[in-house]
Amino acid sequence: MVQATASVLYVNPAGSAQGNGTRQSPFATLTQALRQASSGTTIQLEAGTYSSRESFPLVVATGITLVGIGGTVVIRGGGSLATEEFGSQSVALQLQDRTQLRSVTVTNPQSQGVGVWLEQGSALLTRCRLQGCGRDGVFVTGDALPVLLANQFSENQASGLFMVRSSKGEVRDNRFEQTGYGIAISDQAAPLLIDNEVSNNKAGVVLSRSARPVLRQNRIRRNQTSGLWVQDTAQPDVGQSQDLGGNEFRDNGQWDVHNESRQALTSAGNHINPNRVKGAIRYVASEIPDPVAVPSLLLGRVQPQPAPPVPDSPTPPPLNLDSRFRDVVGHWAAPFVDAMAAAELVKGFFDGSFRPDGLVTRAEFAALVMATFPATNRNGRRLKPFKDVALDFWARSVIYQAQTEGFIAGFPDNTFRPNDPMIRAQAVVALINGLDLGEGMTSELGVYRDRAQVPPYAVEEVAMATRRGIVVNYPDVAEFRPMQPITRAETTAMVYQCLVNLGRMQPLASPYIVQPARAAVSNSVAAVGNTVVTSRHWADDFWQPLIAQNLLDVTSAPDAPMTRAQFASLVVAAFAPQPRRYPVAFRDVPASHWAAEAIHAAYRAKFLSGFPDYTFAPEQSILKIQVLLALVSGLGLNAQTTTGLLTRYQDQAQVPRYAVDAIATATKLGLVFNYPELEQLTPNRVATCGEVAAIVYQGLVLQKRMPPVSSPYRMNAAL
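RE: above sequence
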């Protein structure tokens, strides 16, 4: 069922007092809009100052969103707010449950003035400026659970942020500067502070009474007195032995850490100079294990184990961009690396890294293949000594094992060149010959644009590797790059694909696995009951290639609606995006949800976001406008556009103001498909799987990972 589109009210401080809240006749004051708004309403504020004509405090009721658009939006002023615990308070804005405040500057210059007051529920403040307040930029009390994301707090007299009572919530990626206390936390408040910059204040983070905040990856520096000041019985969590803090405390005027509490502060994994600490502090060593650089099997200390039994009907697990290695999280090869590491076939380095983009030497390649494919001597080849492999060389035994097994050979001058980089063509030849997988046909190289660069000795092997889905090309699936050195990630991925061919590993879904060339599909085929129905669908030219790349389920119907969970799974599989923000936990996405990993990856890559109440609504159908906004945001697309492009659409008035620039960008870059009427955008209609496939395919075209396909339903910006 399609949900009704939420209402939008427009406000312009230069507008007429007779305005009715439409885009053509906006309200003149925010006060008017708030009186008319109800839960689900978005109020768009045009640039300007909202001050003398407003009735402060401005109370934003449950479920209302305030968005500043078109320039600097300033809400300036304050009024008396009656509170049960604190009496009368001078407040500019009070946010209630599930409200949002976006891209707005709030100032309350009154003596003891508070910019934003939060007492209940889960409000969201993002990309706002809280500055010049007579007391606090934001005051949080009661049992409020706000999310403060990417805001700037400056020049507030007492505190940028003050949290008391039993409040919690998340304070992430904010900047606190030039104020009294950057962040003050008291009573039983226990928020998560992560990735914040707290600098140039009188004091950085000040904790009192029984506060229990968690601090991770914050930068607290150059404050006049103390960086972190702990008082009374406050107990901050600044890192545990298996959950390191990663906070940086330095260059503060008196003390980087000042502990006046009644017990020692425990620190693990923080940047702290012990000479800049006052009070008791206990430094705890990390208990996170350091993996060794080379598996013990490669060093000859463990006997090879027989291959596990072939699994029955393996099915691809969900794509996982997390990793046990810190430099593989979000990497395109993360699923391959982690699967191989779980099987103890590859390991990382002592510093917890894997170095996926490091080059692999010929000796290292020999070691890996012999660790993965135990010696059987099935090829019966005689050992040929190499004059450059010394008796005490670390990989001598595995080099000769790899030679006798047919994986790798030397050069005509009787050298092996163990420390030379292994090139990609050599690696494929080694795997195909060593596993005796046969030879392919030259025509199978047609999937590569650079097929002419494949050396003659490697043509049949590369063709067979392509047929069997062993070749993995990143970032361009159509570029084999045969003469380039192979990386650790590429080697791991191709060896993994060999294990899939042998039935020893389950297949993974990755957009970088080369699919063999297939006969052109002129018609789509769908099974309905026991009947096969053949029909041409307008999106077939986009739909079928994504199915061929294992990005879409072949059983899906192109006219069926796509859910938010399905969309998250698709974009993560298609684009393997890098994380651009820290994860959050969605209340309606348990770890057991089939798309949990993809949803979190799509969120971290800024393709999708959740809702202020920490839900994601995974089974809700995604709208067409949301799909377009997701690709523009997640792919970081930018184009010199003009909103005049939207005049191509007869229903351009249905595009919300906040989405105008993004939809113009999508139009300019050819992402927009309109079926059956090219001039009808229908932005608020549920997107079908076919529409989404076309849009995602076009995103891959922009990345030069798919060939352009013409369509009468694609909006051409040049028209």
